[in-house]
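Hello again, I could really use a second opinion on something today. I've been staring at a protein lately and its backbone has me curious. Can you walk me through what the tokens say about the fold? Take your time with it, there's no hurry, and the full record follows here:
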Amino acid sequence: MIDRLSAHEPFEVLVIGGGATGLGCAVDAASRGCRTALLEAHDFAKGTSSRSTKLVHGGVRYLQQGNIALVLEALRERGILCRNAPHLVKDLAFVVPRYRWWDGPFYGVGLKMYDALARDRQIAPSRILGRNETLAEIPNVEPDELIGGVRYHDAQFDDARMALALARTAVDQRAVVANHVRVVDLVKQSGQVTGVAAVDEETGRELRIDAKVVINATGVFADRIRHLDEPGASATTLPSQGVHLVLGRSFQPSDSAIMVPRTDDGRVLFVIPWHDRVLVGTTDTPIPEPSAEPRALPEEVDFILENAGRYLDHDPRREDVLSVFAGLRPLVQPDGGGEETKKISREHAVLVSASGLVTIVGGKWTTYRRMAQDAVNDALEVGGLGARPCPTKALPIHGWMERTHPDFPEESTLQPYGSEFGELRALEEEDPALAEPLDPRLPYRGSHVVYAVRHEMARTPEDVLARRTRSLLLDARASMDAAPRATALLAAELGRDAAWCEAGVAGYRELAAGYLLPDSKPSVR
């Protein structure tokens, strides 16, 4: 990919940012026949796009806010994503527990409206549950004064694995995508943006890449790129931090999730089974400046534990937390400012500067495809590339495989590979040592690491342990213990020496320590 970037053939569309939106733009532009390149300063989905609540959803809380148009769009996109990536997206039932009699009619009517808005893309109809049914669906729910529940359906996915699949889909469409390549400046001719200056972070090599149009899809960092174009440009995003705690499976042992419709700050709280763990979150805390490695604040952790404890019979404690991660939401700056972030819409906006820089901000994972479509539509006009139809509504994502296929793998860590899962098994047959777990507490094996290097551009221990596998989120302490073996496998594939391994393990462990609660100890439960 670096060689192709250096070929000096001008691209038609150059995308900055390898998160959900940027990858979506690369897939969209390339699938329309544009010569397309994408540059990511860190790794694909390093930021917000690997730190979500892992849901593909219409947005129940936006329905409560009365934003019907946003819910409709998200439900349409949910349906498209379920169809285009069945190996990555699956049905997830949610139960809203009821402790007051009037909760039944209130939430029941609202969720029936949610069903109606989904139309033919409805996953399954919602329905009222009795007390015993509710306890069967969510066994760890607080039973005192429980009347029953309301069940509805949305979808779940692995966000970082989806990002990698999108990167490979873009490559399937002949795009050039490169991680660990940082844009340091915009190139202009006659006042118009005509490319970028970038640096290969591995080698320090400087690159100049020309393009007819540049799309800034860097999420919470969008204003930093805009300031390269216009130093005095006003802010477009209002970053907000969301925190999730990862717990053991005992905190929600069934396959259904719990949705608490109103917490102390007015947000919803989710308790979600994921990769044989349980995610609990999220918070909504305004932050002054975005960071590549946001950290949970002590009060956010306390907030989640307190609110989860109200609805769980088996209350989570600090020592039960296997990992804590924070992600930043790139909320669109409202006119006039001053709005609470939990009340700001997740709708997106496309901005075009006087010099032709196209910036896409806002949105969420569920609507990434529509965001990309809107951004590329404007980019084609800015670049003088002519109108070209967008085919992504019916474009299968790399690895497409129906869950109903008789060979679809039961193992959750193989499912995101879809039709290519057999390649990991072939690696293990060729070298049985690769079938050994990276750590007994993690579901990943050596084959996941080797495959990540050979096919998914993994370059660092963090790339492997945080995103190619989800070891960092599933159990931060276990991932630290797995780092030496994972790094040794990585080094063998990349031809690195012992000093590189030592530095890589130390760097990874320093990063992973930030995903542990400071006063947490291994749980005895």
